Amino acid sequence: MTPSLHKSTTRGHANHGWLDSWHSFSFADYYDPARMNFGALRVLNDDVVAPGMGFGMHPHQNMEIISIPLEGELVHKDNMGTRQVIKQGDVQVMSAGIGITHSEKNMNQDSLVKFLQIWIIPNKQNVLPRYAQKSFSTDELRNKLLAIVAPMGDKESLQIYQDAWLSMGKLDQDIELIYEIKKNGNGVYAFLLEGDVTINNIVLNRRDGLGLTEVDSLNIKANVASDLLLIEVPMEW
């Protein structure tokens, strides 16, 4: 299938004052029938939250929700009694299952919070809600693609109810890597946080996205120092 290159400027955009959000896929008032999802990947939002502001308590059901802070500190509260702070280097996952209510707020009054909000459609419905988070050091991500999220049963990564993997890497200039598809039939959505990379002969710049299907591997070269996120998901679920 033809690769889908989503340049950063073609994303949906909404600025609510307290929240400045870029949407890789249709979300809220942004609707593009050609960008409803990439397989089981439903939402990839690039959010900036103003000092002291955030998302008040709101519900979710039957969705795997992953938050990746890029800058600042975010306070999470939910109706399970969880209260946690996540910051750069942390990754948060929630299985909404039968229903969860939560809030996410910028805990600082003088600095922004920047984070990715990712929703993946689960392969198991109506599970008991769950929350987990884990920290990953720069050294763990240096010049490799580390699985930070994986299917249930993986003990090294955070786990979700889907045959999906999220991998991150902080790549030095001229580093070349091969990413092998972990499950037959899965596709990969690459999202470049910072830098400039070439993936299967396609150049990505900062905040570009690239969907690849019907491939066995990705050939990746960092043209400059780059931060890369790969989201491997089933194309059918």
Automatic annotation (TrEMBL):
Pfam families registered for this protein in UniProt: Pirin, Pirin_C_2
Residues in Quercetin 2,3-dioxygenase C-terminal cupin domain copies: 148-233
Cofactor names: Fe cation
Note accompanying the cofactor annotation: Binds 1 Fe cation per subunit.
Entries under InterPro entries matching the protein: Pirin (IPR012093), Pirin_N_dom (IPR003829), Quercetinase_C (IPR041602), RmlC-like_jellyroll (IPR014710), RmlC_Cupin_sf (IPR011051)
Gene Ontology molecular-function annotations: metal ion binding
Record keywords, A-Z: Iron, Metal-binding
Superkingdom per UniProt: Bacteria
Annotated positions binding Fe cation: 58, 60, 102, 104
Segments forming domain Pirin N-terminal: 12-120
Protein family according to the UniProt entry: Belongs to the pirin family.
Protein name, entry field: Pirin family protein
Upper lineage: Bacteria, Pseudomonadati, Bacteroidota, Chitinophagia, Chitinophagales
